[in-house]
Design goal:
It is built from eight helices and eleven strands. The protein is of the alpha/beta class.
Length: 295
């Protein structure tokens, strides 16, 4: 009972935090940068000065002997899919939040932005296989269930395979959707799955990094254990060349990953567990707004 109350309290606290951000900061921006799938026919009305000639309904015009135009409205409703990495490496955190907890906060913010705009939101949790799929729906109760699963689901797998989640998404979600992929991307190459998904959906990749993963501390000889494979290795962290080589390898891997996202025209929001994620999200929204204005 105590555990259940603690879970509910955490979910409620996260709801209040993220909904507050949606109401004060991101609600309008979300609506402006994520568009519906097209235009819906609404009605036929008489032609007025300034109307596009291309919208004239010639059949109705011929019937009544006066020009009439078709009126369309934007199809606003979207489907938003949250693909969240729940592999063992996501439990790591050297600061207040683990990578999985940060993913949960950001996913919650997008989920509440979606339902505030009357959009559907769904969820795929993945490790080295798809752990859980919840189909897109609307409503607060549905969104709270998604948040509970993101934060407290106990995965069976330990590894990270984004390709599995992306392939599954493409099999079960046929309508073009906005897809947020949250992961530390400590995984084998998934280039093919990225290419296919980015063509079918509006895919946004969100790499999540903890600062302790980017550099080795100078603390002498220590043993490291891979959270996903259990493999152990002893490293002499007092060796400066070892620390530099590690930092360079991490940077090269991250740059290669970001380069691939750019080549495939996939937007990215890079997040770090020790930094406020709000500026990164603001920068993302502003960047998309500028691109839409140019178009």
């Amino acid at each position: 009972m105590e555990a259940a109350r603690a879970i509910l309290k955490k979910i409620r606290r996260l709801e209040l935090k993220t909904r507050g951000m949606v109401d004060t900061a991101f609600g309008g921006q979300y609506r402006s940068v994520f568009k519906g799938r097209g235009m819906n026919f609404e009605e036929v009305r008489e032609y007025q000065a300034g109307d596009e000639v291309r919208t004239i309904d010639w059949n109705v015009t011929a019937r009544y002997g006066e020009p009439f135009v078709k009126k369309f409205t934007e199809e606003r409703e979207l489907s938003v899919m949250l693909l969240v990495d729940v592999s063992a490496s996501g439990n790591f955190g050297s600061v207040e939040l683990s990578k999985r907890e940060l993913a949960g906060e950001v996913a919650s913010l997008f989920a509440f932005s979606a339902i505030r705009n009357n959009d559907k939101v769904g969820l795929i949790l993945f490790s080295d296989h798809v752990e859980l799929f919840i189909a897109p729906k609307k409503g607060r109760r549905h969104t709270l269930r998604l948040i509970r699963e993101i934060l407290f689901y106990e995965p069976k797998g330990r590894g990270t395979q984004p390709a599995t989640a992306l392939d599954y998404l493409n099999q079960v979600v046929h309508r073009r959707s906005v897809v947020f992929l949250l992961s530390d991307f400590q995984a084998p190459s998934f280039s093919r799955a990225l290419s296919i998904t980015s063509r079918r959906h509006d895919l946004i990749a969100i790499p999540i990094v903890d600062p302790r993963e980017e550099e080795l501390p100078d603390v002498g000889r220590i043993s490291f254990e891979d959270a996903e494979t259990g493999e152990q290795i002893e490293v002499n962290t007092s060796d400066r060349s070892t620390r530099l080589a590690y930092a360079k390898a991490v940077e090269a891997r991250r740059n290669a990953q970001l380069r691939e996202f750019r080549q495939k025209r996939i937007d990215t929001i890079a997040l770090r567990t020790h930094e406020d994620y709000i500026p990164s999200l603001r920068a993302f929204f502003k960047s998309r707004e500028r691109r839409l204005m140019i178009r």
